[in-house]
Design brief:
115 residues; alpha+beta; TATA-Binding Protein; 2 helices; 37% strand
Amino acid sequence: MARYTCSFTVALSMQNLHECLVNLFTQCKFDVIYDTSDYVMAREVPGGVPFAKLVTAEALIDKTFPDQGYVRINLVIKNEELPLQSNNHCYRMFDTVKTAITEHYNWQLLDLVSS
């Protein structure tokens, strides 16, 4: 199973963040399949790759310090594909989401840590 993670902190209110995450996943060609106040799960739109390579994205919103003016998010991008190559489909989708966070989205990004 391929799995890529990153954590990032944005200077954004909790109310705006949830809507922005849903928009981010939609822009990156994901369908939101599960949505709560502190967790968003999205699945890649079928049709472009075999079923086993479809990517699932999970965003966990850390609500530990809600009044600090910033929010920490843990993002996991995974699929059932074995990561036999470093540039596999899951990694490319992870890179697409990470690029959208860092470059294309108007968030005030305070930090980003990938693993």
